[in-house]
């Protein structure tokens, strides 16, 4: 199994480190501009989305159900953007979250660019949220570059909307975005909160990333298509498995046989 040993906090800048950094030949300050939307301060949004997919409606849902649920229960977590929105890393909470994850031996995680835009409420008539992607991707590249310079190796990019039936424009946007991000540092895992990738498995399996992370797998039929479609040279990372169903051990044995050292599993299932 891939080594996920803990990293020292000395490898990651702490939240109180306000030194400027160099990125792309220019100085990047850690102070935040109030007119920018800040990327990386998304822990509460992650919790909200995880809560949705742990409920029954998260197993087979529509985009309208997710958006309505989020707006009703977590209205403050819905990103509100403008037509000409600009973005900036939220360095303090982002670096604090990364430091905590590395100290605990976990992969740092943040909401991915497509999920962020998909969940957003954009002001203005006839505004295509995907038009903001070109302004958003360089910020993710900036984040990955700085984390790599500080010794971070892996990043989990959560794109739970891959479990939804997406329009073709969004499926194409995934391919475009991650073909751009593949040239930025860090080994990247695409993360889902529920293991049902079937609506977009073909897209997810072939993205130019290191592998896939399935946070919660509750049914064996959700894993079989992943075993068949995900190239064995990529990493398959599994989070929670249903230990009461009796099928998980057999599935893990099959996963080990297929992916070998490219299989990551949660500690409680590593034996």
| Category from helices, strands and their pairing | alpha/beta
What integer value in Å does the Rg equal? 18 Å
Shape: globular
How many domains, as an integer? 1
User: Helices and strands, in N-to-C order?
Assistant: EEEHHEEHEHEHEHEHEHEHE
Biggest sheet statistics: 6 strands, parallel
CATH architecture: Alpha-Beta Barrel
How many separate helices? 9
The fraction of residues assigned to DSSP E strands is 15-25%
Question: Which stretches are low in confidence, meaning pLDDT under 50 for 5 or more residues running?
Answer: 1-32
What share of residues is helical?
Answer: 25-40%
CATH domain fold name: TIM Barrel
CATH class: Alpha Beta
* Count of DSSP strands: 12
Physical arrangement of strands within the biggest beta sheet: 6-8-9-10-11-12
Terminal residue distance: 11 Å
